[in-house]
Amino acid sequence: MAPKSPETSRYTETERKFEVVESTVSPSFEGLSSVARTERSPSQSLAAVYFDTPARDLARNKITLRRRTGGTDAGWHLKLPAGADTRTEVHAPLEGDPTQVPDSLRDVVLAIVRDRPLTPVARINTTRIVELLYGPDGAPVAEFCDDQVTASAEGGEEQSWREWELELKPGTDTAVFDRLTNRLLDAGALPAGHGSKLARVLSTSTSESEEIPTKSADPARRAVAQNIAELIEWDRAVRSDVWDSVHQMRVTTRKIRSLLQSSEGSFDIADHEWILEELRELAAVLGVARDAEVLAERYERAIDGLPEANVRGPVRERLVEGAKKRYQMGWKRSLTAMRSQRYFRLLDALEALVTSGPPASAPGEEPAQLTIDSAYKRVRKAAKAARAAAADPEVNVEDSNEALHRIRKRAKALRYTAAATGETKVAERAKAIQSLLGDHQDSVVSRTHLSRQAEVAHAAGEDTFTYGLLYQLEDDLARRCEEQIEDALKALDKSVRS
């Protein structure tokens, strides 16, 4: 479960909805070994106002945002998809202006709503009867709700229906969920054709002329569109400070930039160079926190693996705790960038680029197709330069390391292109090179940091033995990576030729 802010709380909700008619008799749960007894609560009256942007951006992403009064969980509720039958609920208390969405909830979906207004889109009133199901151990296993619903979209006609909800309690086996579901189906219920009450209301108010977007036949456009969607998902994880989310958002940002650069036949990127620059800047901002997170984990693992006698002085405080502090600073800096108009405009531009038409080709020319050819040529060229640097005694270590790092960047671009075009084996081989040289580059960064920290520790009169030991471990790792690179390049060449 992701961390929560002081203003919000988070829950995981696993439920299924069912359509029933007025005459449907409520199901019986007798005879089920997983249900020892049931307890029915008094009827509840729930009133909810749902909010969204004018373009229904939240609904399009299967997200609901409501302000509910009445019942046992009155408050602001933001529901986010989290898998089959499962959603993450973020709650905020009923405070302040009832027409203003709390900032703590708005920030969770800021990459989707950006600076667009959130206003009421529907009102739903529910009369609910709840039946709580308890297992043989006395713990609740599920909650069955029989709802009478009256709802209307803003400016739309009122509609009424009856539906059932079955919510699984935390810790209950999903097999129990299926057995309970069968009881509802046996009683005459049908699986609901909507994921939420709001979805049912809005679907009836949607214009029939609105077209459902279809996937592009262009592999580059499909890949970029998919990565933009992933970027927005990782954005949400970064805001909650989920482990490794900064790294994954940075990777996705770089992936989009690489695909746009290598897809001239699919995108009119020549007139949108600023997008590439903004993606580069965003990756750089995220890189501050990412690098610190990597170093913190790297040093913690390395120090834990050393004999206690070899850990001398406050090395853990300087390396691990220091990196964690730098991560927090970098994370906060990332959030500042992700709440800016500049970031919103970048997301707007990326979505517009995907939906716009391809660049015009010259008369008689076919649009350039996305292939691995040019990307692989750049890998070979970088590898040739790295071999030359390694063989030249006048080339210093820094330049030689940079030459290897250049292979990694070219292999990464090849991997993204190969994945987009369905060249799975090439993508796997390119990823192997990227990972190998990624370890090498992390070692280069780590050794530089260790040298600096050792100097600081020495100036403070501390024992620097452990810094030297860690430095040697990093140097050994780098050498092992260098020894494996030629075999990895040969494997890549074989996969390309086959």
From TrEMBL:
Xref: InterPro entries: CHAD_dom, CHAD_dom_sf, CYTH-like_dom_sf, CYTH_domain
Domain CYTH: 11-208
CDD domains: CYTH-like_Pase
Matches recorded under PROSITE patterns: CHAD (PS51708), CYTH (PS51707)
Gene3D superfamilies per the UniProt record, alphabetical: CHAD domain, Hypothetical Protein Pfu-838710-001
Occurrences of domain CHAD (ranges): 213-494
Protein name, UniProt field: CHAD domain-containing protein
Organism whose genome encodes this protein: Mycolicibacterium iranicum
Biological classification of the source: Bacteria, Bacillati, Actinomycetota, Actinomycetes, Mycobacteriales
